[in-house]
Specification:
Shape of chain B: elongated
Oligomer: heterodimer
Radius of gyration of chain A: 21 Å
Order of helices and strands of chain A: HHHHEHHEEH
Helix content of chain A: 40-55%
Structural class of chain B: alpha+beta
Largest interface: A-B, 21 and 21 residues
Largest sheet of chain A: 3 strands, antiparallel
Number of strands of chain A: 3
Strand content of chain B: 15-25%
Helix content of chain B: 40-55%
Strand content of chain A: 5-15%
Number of strands of chain B: 18
Shape of chain A: globular
């Protein structure tokens, strides 16, 4: 159903927007600037015909952005490129519109609030971070994506764990229709007290 | 002083464009400036095909999305912006002399965390511009991001309207300048407002008009300390509102291209949305030039219409070359001609030019490649997520309940095309007169008022018939000159106007009513033409003191009176006759001598009256007196 593909749509759109919004970070007017001399471009055939400006930009950006950010920028640039735009970005945008439409009508006509889990898996140990597959990390967002894509208010409420020994438990999420935050807060308060 | 050299921008450019030239760059190739036909050894080989892209800076108070005032954060930088007669040109003037990077708000340099907010003024100006070019304006248009990296593009993308522009499918009607006959009355054909292209005019179609942001300006300077060339960026211009007007490749010659640019320029200036100064960059022009082979066209049947023939030719148009960095009409013309010949020569030699972008070198009048390797740029267009779709509704127009039509009706001034047609058909003015008047919109209003007022003052139809022509003559020949002589210098000295301002009767101290009255006085025979000019000058120079008097009263007070009194005139006639006894003897011979001498005496009498005698009355009286003194036998 729509929900299943929402995650993919979300990442396409989010990466695209991120790659666009991060274009301004070139070290030229603010932020980190790296002198081009400090970066070794020699022997790189792809960059041999860069202009000095392009060299400066790529040096600053390569240095200043972290791995995850670079990953998303590359992904976003890719889906916006002219030969992929229709397949990825446009398809994602259409899916988003369909999803938003369905969620709006559900929340207007059928139910007042949606109650779903916030996450599907618990956080990994900190020293195991590099072992986790990035795509699996993305998959963790599947429950929070629909509200973001549809532009609906959502509230995450922590839940008391069943076993006293474990630190984390799966939180719960309330989603309401647009501009209906007050109802959402009231319900959230009740749920919080129930813990 | 500079302004004296700019006589009338339109007239000046007409002079450049009118002179027919054939350009010869390579010894064998030439191109006709007016028809765009490229010839080898005199034989037509190719047809020039030109498309224009024009960027016009909107003349509004802030930038497009940031709210930054256009004349900088420092108001009143010595250009009289507080004066009541201050014009919007003063704000664009002061923006010229601003120090770099002084008119910049956070969004203009892409400081993180700032969001764009669309300026209502910009949308209104863009809508007016689109309406003036008869475009279709869909209710909804959208903004997109066009991504590329460059130092003068702070956001790393330009906000523009690619897929859903503000306006589409418009047209621009251009006049080819009339060589020679200024006083020609419009031919019956063109007077009937024919839309067909003839030798006088042509239409260029507009594909789209879109709103977009301007970039910063890059300047290359040599660093005095390191002696190295540096590129510096000034962001004052970054974020200013532009409209991009893209034309279909309908143009066929360099002269037509320059004419189209000039027509658009003066149209936008007329409606007040763009100050239209190419030299300052408020109007920028990019040229797309290509050529189409003319082979085998002679053998085609002559029954093919011109339009079909043209269509057949441009089916085979070669690669187009974009030429940038054109800062004047003359450069547009030169670049187009150079490109046409360059492409023709290359094609004929078997290596047709590739699609590329070139820049115009002012020193050599040639186009030059920008980059040796041209890779097609992928701009990664993406819908702008920070801006909602632009809906042309009452919120945009600023008045509750107002729709597009209502907005245009109250805000779009009479277009030059329509005004010119109206002046020619309703008043029978010549092309030249009509164009001088429409070249200065306040002059149209003054003209209308004067005609109306003069008609009210005159009683006889035969007098009324001559009103429009007389008003036009006095307005164009006398009043403009008075304003130029007495106002423009003062305004420039006081800093209210910059030196490139054109003479406008907006500054005239004589209004339409007064002009109308003067015309009425002439046509009813109270004053002569010469007196009218003098009267006008008096009214102008002493406008303050004579405010409460009507033109008629002033004429009387200052002695501008045609002598119509028979007794007075008889006296003059008698005196002149007495002073010329020899001529009188010849008169008595009768026949043709009588006629000649009458004319002679008439001239003498007129001189004796210092030109103040009413011509017809004087003639009547003279004839009567002659009859009295020396009656001729009837033959």
């Amino acid at each position: 159903r729509l929900m299943q593909r929402a995650l993919a749509a979300y990442y396409v759109l989010v990466s695209a927007e991120a790659s666009s919004n991060l274009c301004r970070y070139d070290g030229f007017r603010y932020g980190v600037a790296v002198a081009e001399e400090e970066v070794n471009f020699n022997g790189n055939s792809e960059t041999s015909d860069f202009t000095p400006l392009e060299r400066q930009y790529s040096a600053s950006r390569s240095f200043g952005f972290g791995t995850e950010v670079k990953r998303r920028i590359l992904c976003g640039t890719s889906v916006l490129s002219s030969d992929r735009f229709h397949t990825y970005y446009e398809a994602a945008a259409k899916l988003r519109a369909a999803l938003a439409e369905e969620m709006h009508s559900t929340l207007k006509e059928k139910v007042d609030l949606l109650l779903i889990p916030t996450v599907l898996s618990l956080p990994h140990k900190i020293d195991q971070g590099s072992l986790v597959d990035p795509t699996a990390m993305f998959a963790n967002d599947v429950m929070t994506v629909p509200a973001s894509l549809s532009g609906l208010p959502a509230l995450s409420i922590p839940r008391q764990t069943q076993e006293p020994s474990s630190t984390f438990s799966y939180g719960m999420q309330l989603i309401s229709s647009r501009l209906n935050e007050s109802m959402m807060f009231q319900a959230g308060k009740v749920l919080e007290c129930m813990n | 002083t500079p302004y004296k050299m700019i006589i009338h921008y339109q007239a000046l450019t007409r002079r450049i464009l009118t002179h027919p030239r054939i350009r010869r760059d390579f010894s064998q190739w030439s191109v006709d400036s007016e028809k765009g036909v490229v010839c080898f050894q005199g034989k037509p080989r190719y047809q020039t095909v030109i498309g224009l892209e024009i960027h016009a800076q909107l003349d509004i108070s802030t930038k497009l999305f940031s709210g930054c005032p256009v004349d900088g954060n420092h108001r009143g930088t010595g250009c009289g912006s507080t004066s009541p007669t201050s014009l919007s040109s003063s704000s664009s003037l002061s923006s010229l002399f601003q120090k770099p990077n002084t008119s910049v708000w956070p969004l203009d340099v892409a400081v993180p965390g700032v969001l764009p907010r669309l300026s209502q003024e910009a949308v209104q100006a863009a809508v007016l511009s689109a309406a003036a070019t008869k475009c279709e304006l869909p209710r909804v248009s959208r903004f997109e991001r066009k991504h590329y990296f460059y130092a003068d593009l702070p956001l790393g993308y330009q906000v523009t309207q690619q897929r859903w522009p503000l306006a589409r499918e418009g047209r621009l009607r251009c006049q080819r300048s009339n060589r020679g006959n200024k006083k020609a009355k419009p031919s019956k054909k063109s007077r009937m407002a024919g839309d067909d292209d003839n030798d006088d005019s042509f239409t260029v179609r507009i594909e789209r008009i879109q709103l977009e942001q301007d970039t910063g300006k890059t300047v290359i300077m040599t660093n005095p300390k390191t002696r190295r060339k540096e590129s510096l960026v000034d962001f004052n211009r970054a974020g200013r509102a532009l409209i991009e007007i893209v034309f279909y490749p309908d143009l066929r010659s360099s002269v037509d291209a320059a004419t189209a640019v000039e027509t658009l320029r003066s149209l936008l200036k007329h409606i007040g949305t763009c100050s239209g100064r190419m030299e300052d960059g408020s109007l920028r022009c990019d040229l797309n030039v290509s050529i189409a082979p003319l082979e085998n066209m002679d053998q085609e049947k002559t029954s093919i219409t011109t339009q079909n023939k043209d269509h057949a030719i441009v089916q085979h148009t070669g690669n187009r070359v974009e030429v940038k960095n054109l800062n004047s009409l003359r450069q547009v013309q030169l670049a187009a001609e150079y490109e046409a010949i360059r492409q023709a020569e290359a094609a004929a030699n078997g290596s047709p030019t590739l699609q590329e972008t070139r820049t115009f070198d002012v020193k050599t009048n040639q186009t030059v490649t920008i980059r040796t390797k041209e890779v097609a740029k992928d701009y990664r267009f993406m819908p702008e997520p920070d801006l909602p779709p632009l809906i042309l509704n009452e919120e945009v127009f600023g008045t509750p309940g107002m729709d597009l039509e209502g907005f245009l009706e109250s805000n779009l001034p009479e277009l030059p095309e329509d005004a010119q047609r109206r002046l020619k058909t309703s008043y029978g003015l010549s092309d030249y007169m009509a164009s001088v008047l429409t070249g200065d919109p306040p002059a149209i209003e003054l003209f209308d008022t004067a005609v109306h007022h003069a008609n009210r003052q005159l009683t006889m139809d035969r007098e009324r018939k001559k009103v429009p022509e007389t008003v036009a003559n006095l307005l164009c020949n006398e009043l403009f000159a008075l304003v130029r002589e007495l106002e423009m210098q003062r305004l420039i000295e006081e800093g209210i106007l910059d030196g490139t301002g054109e003479t406008s009767v907006r500054f005239s101290r004589v209004d339409g009513n007064q002009l109308g009255e003067v015309v009425a006085l002439v046509l009813e025979g109270s004053i002569s033409n010469t007196m009218a000019k003098q009267l006008l000058r008096v009214l102008y120079e002493e406008s303050n003191e004579l405010k409460q008097f009507s033109a008629r009263e002033v004429a009387q007070k200052r002695g501008f009176q045609l002598i119509s009194d028979s007794v007075e005139l008889a006296k003059i006639a008698h005196r002149v006759i007495a002073e010329n006894p020899e001529e009188m003897e010849r008169y008595k011979l009768g026949g043709k001598f009588a006629r000649k001498i009458t004319k002679f005496l008439l001239g003498k009498s007129m001189a004796a009256s210092q030109g103040n005698a009413h011509p017809e009355r004087l003639n009547e009286v003279l004839v009567e007196v002659l009859e009295e003194i020396a009656p001729l036998s009837k033959e």
